[in-house]
């Protein structure tokens, strides 16, 4: 639902501009206000969910998101719509911070990749349907219906979550929330994103943009200092001492930058470079999320067998290959559509195994925080990808005019995004290779011996003592990072 809402709103920009007689920059804040609050809140909400319960916040998140969506559809002006989008973003943060964490705690360790793969397919489906559904709703009922459509979906989600989701049983001890960390985190993220947003229009050397960037840098320094000395930090920086976690988060950030950079640049190619109408452009663009949605569940299943490392590395290399192909060959509609499908295939191979490896490498009592960080990287990747692509596209377009300039801008953007994809592949390769280990069911005599001696089965043919307060899990593949977690 969140991905569908994000892609639907972008389709409504021209309608909102005409409806409220506003500039393009003013209309962009309908999306930017939502994105800023989501990025700033999702990690804090994940940290709070680790203490209060993930099911509770996830279910209430549906309620907040649904009520705010209806209110957005009733907004009388653009300023009110921006304010209501902030409330909607708070509900979205409650959903996104807990979705992956709920999967990570509910799925058996040997099926974690499969579960996250299904979630990746659902997100890709929402992203793919957004332009089509949004265009249809706007044509039939006006821009208000892109928000009203969330009412039935939100009510169903809230009821299903209340009755079917398991209660959180691995909660952190309730401590005072790290409000100082949050106070430093908001200007850190907000300053950087605002600088990127205004930099495209006013120039990155303007006093306003430099001031915003300075606020962001100072906020980052204060946030890191606060989290290091806080007794119960909002973000446990010790998570980044784990190579699988740090490599996964960083490469995931780059993958989202690549994805949304492509979604930003390719419509300009279809419209200004190839002269296609918007309806056809939107249909062709769905080749990317459609391929991602098909590959994601298969990659999740395969990751449970072969591990995350080969799939994530190959996936980002395929993505880079598709981008380089666009940079070289971008004048034939069929060829470009195939290149988009190759990019989607690569991202589909990368995302579920990477997300599963991130969640598997974090202690289970920190899964809400890890899920919040995972979703925060999606928001940051979205902002950086769009902003960076806008700057590179403008630079490449300046050397020519008309459709030739558009094609040059897209080619330059594709090269830069390909470099980011290759860098993500290098980071993904830093993970240790994993090898799945078959788990043999204990024979009858072994089971009797275990009950008599207080020992239980390990992942191999031998037995090892049970550890008090610990739960042993099979090692190998995604599962090796889920072992030895506190059970309270």
Q: Tell me about the largest β-sheet.
A: 2 strands, antiparallel
Helix/strand/pairing category: mainly alpha
Portion of residues in beta strands equals under 5%
The mean pLDDT is 77
Number of helical regions = 18
Helix content: over 70%
Name of the level-1 CATH class of the largest domain: Mainly Alpha
Tell me what the CATH architecture of the largest domain is.
Up-down Bundle
Structure description:
This protein is 76% helix and 2% strand. The protein has 488 residues and is mainly alpha-helical. It folds into 2 domains: 2-164 and 234-428, Up-down Bundle (Growth Hormone, Chain: A), CATH 1.20.1250; 178-233. It has a two-stranded antiparallel sheet with strand order 1-2. Strands 3-4 form a two-stranded antiparallel ribbon. Helix 11 (243-273) packs parallel to helix 16 (367-397), helix 11 (243-273) packs antiparallel against helix 17 (402-428) and helix 13 runs antiparallel to helix 14 (308-328). It starts with a helix and ends with a strand. Residues 435-444 and 450-488 have low confidence and may be disordered.
Can you lay out the helices and strands and say which pair or pack?
Elements: H1 2-11, H2 13-20, H3 24-52, H4 54-73, H5 78-106, H6 112-141, H7 145-148, H8 150-164, H9 179-202, H10 207-229, H11 243-273, H12 278-285, H13 287-306, H14 308-328, H15 333-361, H16 367-397, H17 402-428, H18 444-453, E1 455-457, E2 463-465, E3 470-471, E4 485-486
Antiparallel strand pairs: 1-2, 3-4
Helix pairs in contact: 1-6, 2-3, 3-4, 3-5, 3-9, 3-16, 4-5, 4-8, 5-16, 6-13, 6-15, 9-10, 9-16, 11-12, 11-15, 11-16, 11-17, 13-14, 13-15, 14-15, 14-17, 16-17
């Amino acid at each position: 639902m969140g991905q569908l809402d994000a892609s639907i709103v972008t389709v409504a920009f021209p309608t909102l501009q005409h409806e409220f007689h506003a500039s393009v920059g003013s209309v962009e804040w309908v999306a930017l206000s939502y994105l800023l609050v989501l990025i700033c809140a999702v990690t804090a909400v994940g940290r709070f969910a680790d203490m209060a319960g993930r099911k509770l916040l996830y279910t209430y998140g549906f309620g907040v998101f649904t009520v705010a969506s209806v209110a957005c559809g009733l907004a009388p002006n653009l300023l009110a719509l921006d304010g209501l989008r902030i409330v909607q973003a708070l509900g979205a943060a409650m959903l996104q911070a807990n979705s992956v964490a709920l999967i990570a705690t509910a799925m058996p360790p040997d099926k974690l990749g499969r579960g996250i793969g299904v979630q990746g397919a659902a997100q890709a489906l929402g992203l793919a349907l957004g332009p089509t559904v949004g265009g249809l709703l706007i044509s039939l009922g006006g821009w208000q219906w892109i928000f009203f459509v969330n009412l039935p979906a939100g009510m169903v989600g809230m009821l299903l979550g209340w009755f079917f989701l398991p209660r959180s049983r691995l909660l952190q001890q309730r401590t005072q929330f790290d409000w100082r960390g949050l106070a430093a985190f908001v200007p850190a993220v907000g300053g950087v994103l605002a600088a990127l947003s205004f930099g495209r229009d006013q120039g990155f050397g303007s006093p306003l943009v430099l001031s915003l960037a300075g606020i962001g840098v100072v906020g980052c320094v204060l946030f890191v200092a606060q989290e290091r000395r806080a007794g119960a930090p909002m973000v446990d920086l010790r998570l980044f001492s784990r190579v699988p976690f740090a490599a996964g988060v960083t490469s995931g950030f780059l993958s989202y930058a690549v994805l949304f950079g492509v979604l930003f640049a390719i419509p300009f190619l279809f419209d200004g470079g190839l002269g296609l109408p918007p309806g056809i452009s939107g249909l062709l663009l769905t080749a990317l999320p459609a391929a991602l949605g098909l590959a994601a569940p298969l990659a999740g299943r395969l990751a449970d067998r072969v591990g995350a490392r080969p799939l994530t590395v190959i996936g980002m290399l395929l993505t880079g290959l598709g981008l380089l192909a666009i940079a070289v060959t971008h004048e034939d509609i069929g060829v470009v559509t195939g290149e988009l499908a190759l990019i989607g295939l690569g991202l589909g191979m990368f995302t579920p195994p990477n997300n599963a490896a991130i969640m598997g490498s974090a202690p289970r009592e920190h899964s809400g925080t890890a899920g919040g960080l995972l979703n925060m990287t999606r928001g940051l990747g979205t902002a950086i990808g769009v902003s960076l692509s806008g700057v590179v596209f403008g630079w490449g377009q300046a050397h020519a005019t008309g459709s030739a300039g558009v094609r040059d801008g897209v080619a330059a953007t594709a090269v830069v995004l390909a470099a980011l994809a290759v860098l993500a592949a290098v980071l993904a390769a830093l993970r240790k290779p994993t090898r799945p280990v078959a788990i043999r069911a204990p024979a009858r005599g072994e089971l009797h011996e275990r009950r008599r001696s207080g020992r239980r089965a390990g992942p191999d043919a031998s037995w090892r003592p049970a550890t008090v307060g610990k739960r042993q899990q099979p090692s190998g593949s995604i599962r090796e990072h889920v072992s030895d977690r506190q059970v309270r």
